């Protein structure tokens, strides 16, 4: 029997992309109510052959979820922590893809509850693997690149206000390797004209992309290392979210309670 998925963040693009994969899967089914902002209260959204009614957080008390429901959260930084509180208070295991809120407090709430969750600022498997590799290098070879210089440019859709968490994570690894680069020096590109002309983002993906470039200069400028990772659209994040849901199911079946899981846990299986 398919597991119900309660989607938080509809009709937002990331939530909608994930919901479409959920609807097309054999092992999950969309719950017929989704969490949205007050401006969408009472509206419906079509996902595949399902119509999902949208409610705001003030109406959650009237929502009765089946006992085996899992939640997926792609909402906003302002709403995410209150959503976590609702999930743990109502015994709803969840996958949290929302970023730029108090993740430490979210993890504390989960650990103090009987609800397990996958909390991951990035659901894209290739990017998660790259971040893990960078952290390993920093741990194994601390200070090995002392004296090197770094330039970081990240480009995302114009409505992304915060600096990329992925860029911040890679800068932290660079710091561990001895490169003194502050996260405030990360260059954010949000202007569509620059994104096309300077970064190389295709016009059709201006509304959804993640293009990053890291340039490391070492040995008095005689050595240059360049790392790029470019993501078009949101499919890779949605696929990672479904992998996280399946892993969370496995952990719950094995008795997991109050466990904070990451995408690296998901990849380890």
TrEMBL record:
What Enzyme Commission number(s) apply to this enzyme?
A: 1.17.1.8
Q: Which reaction does it catalyse?
A: (S)-2,3,4,5-tetrahydrodipicolinate + NADP(+) + H2O = (2S,4S)-4-hydroxy-2,3,4,5-tetrahydrodipicolinate + NADPH + H(+); (S)-2,3,4,5-tetrahydrodipicolinate + NAD(+) + H2O = (2S,4S)-4-hydroxy-2,3,4,5-tetrahydrodipicolinate + NADH + H(+)
Q: In which pathway does it act?
A: Amino-acid biosynthesis; L-lysine biosynthesis via DAP pathway; (S)-tetrahydrodipicolinate from L-aspartate: step 4/4
Q: The Dihydrodipicolinate reductase N-terminal domain covers which part of the protein? A: 5-123
Every copy of the Dihydrodipicolinate reductase C-terminal domain together lies at 127-267
Entry's transmembrane regions? none
Q: Which GO terms describe its biological process?
A: diaminopimelate biosynthetic process; lysine biosynthetic process via diaminopimelate
GO terms of molecular function = 4-hydroxy-tetrahydrodipicolinate reductase
The UniProt keyword set, sorted, is: Amino-acid biosynthesis, Diaminopimelate biosynthesis, Lysine biosynthesis, NAD, NADP, Oxidoreductase
Superkingdom of the source? Bacteria
UniProt similarity note = Belongs to the DapB family.
Q: What is this protein called?
A: 4-hydroxy-tetrahydrodipicolinate reductase
> Organism source for this protein?
Botrimarina mediterranea
Q: Output the lineage of the source organism.
A: Bacteria, Pseudomonadati, Planctomycetota, Planctomycetia, Pirellulales
Query: What gene does this protein come from?
Result: dapB
């Amino acid at each position: 029997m398919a597991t119900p998925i309660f989607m938080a963040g509809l009709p937002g693009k990331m939530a909608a992309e994930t919901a479409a994969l959920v609807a097309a899967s054999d092992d999950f089914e969309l719950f017929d109510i989704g969490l949205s902002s007050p401006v969408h209260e009472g509206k419906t959204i079509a996902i595949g052959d399902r119509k999902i009614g949208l409610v705001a957080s003030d109406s959650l008390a009237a929502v009765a979820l089946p006992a085996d429901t899992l939640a997926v959260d792609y909402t906003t930084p302002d709403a995410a922590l209150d959503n976590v509180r609702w999930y743990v208070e109502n015994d709803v295991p969840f996958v949290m893809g929302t970023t730029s809120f108090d993740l430490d407090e979210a993890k504390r709430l989960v650990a103090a509850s009987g609800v397990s969750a996958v909390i991951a600022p990035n659901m894209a498997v290739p990017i998660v693997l790259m971040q893990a590799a960078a952290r390993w290098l920093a741990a194994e070879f601390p200070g090995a690149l002392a004296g090197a210089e770094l330039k970081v440019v990240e480009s995302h859709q114009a409505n992304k206000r915060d600096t990329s968490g992925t860029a911040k994570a890679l800068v932290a690894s660079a710091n561990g390797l001895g490169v003194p680069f502050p996260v405030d020096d990360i260059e954010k590109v949000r202007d569509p004209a620059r994104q096309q002309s300077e970064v190389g983002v295709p016009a059709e993906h201006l509304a959804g992309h993640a293009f990053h470039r890291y340039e490391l200069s070492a040995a008095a400028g005689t050595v240059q290392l360049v790392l790029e990772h470019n993501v078009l659209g949101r499919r890779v994040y949605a696929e990672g979210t479904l992998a996280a849901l399946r892993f969370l199911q496995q952990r719950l079946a094995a008795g997991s309670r109050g466990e904070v899981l990451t995408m690296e846990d998901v990849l380890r299986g």
